[in-house]
Amino acid sequence: MDTLSHLASGFAAALSPAYFTYAFAGCVLGTLIGVLPGLGPAAGTAILIPLTFKLDATGAIIMLAAIYYGAMYGGTITSVLINVPGEAASVITCLDGHQMAKQGRAGTALGIAAIGSFIGGTVATIALALIAPPLARFALKFGPPEFFALMLLGLCLVSGLAGRSLAAAVLMTVLGLLVSMIGIDPVRGAPRFAFGVADLYDGLGIVPVVMGLFGVAEILITAEQPLREVVRSKFGSLLPSRDEWARAWGAIWRGTGIGFGLGLVPGIGAIVPTFVAYVAEKRLSKTPERFGRGAIEGVAAPETANNAYANAAMVPFLTLGIPSSPTIAVLMGAFIVNGLTPGPFLFQERPDLVWAVIASFFVGNAILLVLNLPLVGLWAKILHVPFKYLAVGVLLFCLLGAYSLQQSVFDVWVMIASGVFGYAMRKLDLPLAPLVLGLILGPPIEKSLRTSLEMSGGDYGIFFTRPLCLALLIVSAVVLVGAALRLAPKQLREA
Amino acid sequence: MSSQSASHRVVERAVLACLCAVFAAATGIAYTYSLKDDLGPGAGFFPFWLGLIGAVLSLVLLARSWRGRTIGDGAEARWPDRPGALRAVALLGSLVASALLLAPVGFRLTAFVVTAALLVALGVRRPVVIVAFALAASFGLFHVFYYWLKVPLPIGPFGV
Q1: Taking CA atoms, what residue in A is nearest to B18?
Q2: Distance (Å, rounded) from C-alpha A420 to C-alpha A400?
Q3: pLDDT above 70 as % of chain B
Q4: Where are the domains of chain B?
Q5: Which end of chain A, N or C, is less packed with Cβ atoms under 10 Å?
C-alpha cells in the first residue's frame, strides 16, 4: 500500500507539465543520440548534463534518465538501417534487423523493437517499484563492513564480466580506484596526489572524465572511419503481420525476463542480456536457420531485453548506490552534482524524487512508443547528417559540458586528456566500464574500508565475523575465481 | 606479424610501461603519506595497495604482451589510414585550441574560430556554409546556454 501511494504521488509529479516536458525532451534527445553515429548513451548523457543545470534535482534526473533509455532505443535504428549499432547493446540486433531492412521490412523491425522495448521497460519498471523499497529497507541495516563488501562485489562483477581478459579488467578497475584518490582524503582531510595544484584538491570531476573517455574518444574513433550507406529500402508496415506477432510475442516476454533478471546483477553490462535473449530464442526456435536472415524474434528478444535491462539496472543503483554500467555511472555523477547520493538513504531522505523518477520511467516508456512508431522515418533521415557537422556539434557540447560544471578550464583539459586515454584504451581493447566504476566507487569504498578497520581497531576479522559481509566476500571471490577459470582455458590455448 | 600488428604491440607495451610507472610512482608517493595512524589505516593505506596491485598487474600484462598474447579483449585494433588519422587529429587539435582560447577570448569567439577551422579541416569548402554554421554554433549556443539556461560562460574582450 505504501508503495502504491508513493507511486501515485510519483505519477502526480512525473505527469506535471514541467516534468513531463523534461521526460519528453529527454526521450527525443536520447533517441537522437542513439541515432547519431559516434555517440553512445554514456557519452550522450554526459554531454547533455549542462542542459539540466537550470532544472531542479528531480527534473534533472528525470531528463537524464529519459536520455538514457531514449538512447538505448535510438541505437536500434542505426542497427536496422545501416547495420551499425548505435550502442553496444544493439550489436545483436544488426543480425536480423538489417536483414529485415534489406527485405523491405525495416518498418516492422523498428516497430517490433519499439513495442518490445515498451513492454520490457514497463514490466521491468513495475518490478523495480515492487523490489526497490524492501531492498532499500534491508540495505539500511548495512554497516560499513557490509557496504565495503557490497561495493567490492560490484567491482568484482564488473571486472569479472567486463571482458575476456580478467587481468586487464582488474587493472582498469584499480586504475579507476587510484585516480579517485586524487584530492582530499575523505577520512582525515589531508590532500593526496594534488602536488600543490589547487584544481586537484577537489579531485578529478566524474563528468569531464566520462565525457572524455566516452564522448571524445568515440568521436575520435568515428572520425577515422568512413560512414556506411543508409539502406534506402521500403519501410513497409510498422506493425507486424499476424504470423510475425505470433513469433514475436513469446520472444518479447522471454526477453523481458532475461533483461530484468540480468539487469539486477551489477556490472553485467547491457550487451550480455541482449546476447542471452537472442541465443535463447534461437535455441527455442523450431526453425533456427531463419536467424540471421531476418527473423523477427531476433529483433524482438534482444531489444526487449535491452530496455528491461536498462530499467532493472536502476534497482542496484537506486537501492544500493552501485552503478551497473558507464551510463548509470554518468547518472550517478548527475545525482552527485545535484547533492544527492544514490543508495538506501535516498528512499528515506528524498522519496519525492525517487518515486517521481520511477514514475517517469513509465511515462518515458510510453513517450518513446508514441514518439518512435510514427517518427521512424524522421529518425532515419537524421542518419544522413554529414559527420563533419555532427562532429563539430559534439565537440562544442563536450566543451560546454566540461567547462560549465564548475566554470573551470582545468576540467576541459581533464576531458581532453581522458579522451586521448580513452581512445588508446579502445584501440588496445581494454574495458572502460571498470575504470569508470572504480572512479565512482573509490571514495565510498575507501571510506567504508577504513571506517570498518577503525571500528575493529585494525582487526580484519570484522569482515569475516559478520554473516552478510562474509557472504558478500565469498560471492566476490567466487565471481573472480569463476571468471579466472572461465578465461583460463582460452588463454592457455592462445599461449 | 604484419606491420599493423607490430606497431600495435609497440603501442601496447608503451602504454603498459607507462601504466606500470604511474602505479609504481603512486605506490611510492602513497608510502610517504601515513599508512597507519592512531585511529586506524592512514591516508596512504588504500592508494599504497592499489598502486602495488596495479604495478604488479601491469607487469603481468607486459609479460603477456612480450609472449605474443593480446592484453585486451583479443580483437586486434584497426589503426586509421592517413585521411582518417588527419580527421581525428583535427578534432583533437580543435579541442586543445578551445581549451587554450576559452578563458582569454571567451566562448563565442573561441567557438566561432574553432568551428570554422574544423569545418575547413573536415572538407567543407563553401564560405557561406562555414560562416553560417560557425555563427549558429558559437553565438547561437552561447545565447541558449548563457541567457536561457543561465549557464555562466566566459566572455571575451569587448564583451563578445
Answers
A1: A421
A2: 18
A3: 92
A4: 3-66, 82-159
A5: N
pLDDT tens digits for A92-150?
888 898 888 888 888 888 889 989 989 999 999 999 999 988 888 888 888 899 989 98
Determine the 3-state secondary structure of A191 from DSSP: strand
Whole-prediction pTM value? 0.82
Question: What are the grid coordinates assigned to A359, written together?
Answer: 514514475
Provide DSSP, B79-147. PP-HHHHHHHHHHHHHHHHHHHHHHHH-HHHHHHHHHHHHHHHTT---HHHHHHHHHIIIIIHHIIIII
Host H or E run for residue A328 = helix A326-337
Cβ contact (<8 Å) for A400 and B94? no
**ipTM for the whole complex:** 0.92
Distance from CA of A191 to the nearest CA of B (A): 9
Q: Which residues of B touch A54 (CB under 8 A)?
A: 148-151
Identify residue A66 by its one-letter amino acid code.
A
Q: How many residues does chain A have?
A: 495
Determine which of A219, A389, A413, A428 to mutate to test the interface with B (most B C-beta atoms within 10 Å).
A428
Rounded Cα gap, residues A230 and A112, in angstroms: 20
pLDDT band with cut points at 50, 70 and 90 for residue B98: very high
- pLDDT under 50: residue ranges of chain A: 492-495
DSSP state of B79: P
Q: Which residue of B has its CA nearest to A495?
A: B69
Contact between chains at B53 and A388 (C-beta distance less than 8 A): no
Contacts of B45 in chain A (CB under 8 A): 450
Provide the β-strand partners of residue A192: A183
Look at residues A301, A299, A353 and name the one whose alpha carbon lies nearest to residue A331: A353
Nearest CA in chain A to B130: A389
Contact of A266 with A135, CB cutoff 8 Å: no
* C-alpha closest to that of A191 among B33, B19, B52: B33
Nearest to B43 among A185, A392, A427 (CB): A185
CA gap A241, A326 in Å, rounded? 37
Q: Are B145 and A190 in contact (CB < 8 Å)?
A: no
Beta bridge partners of B37: B40
Total residues belonging to chain B: 160
H helices, E strands: number in chain B? 6, 2
Tell me if A220 and B92 make a contact (CB, 8 A cut-off): yes
Of A36, A142, A416, A376, nearest in space to A239 by CA: A376
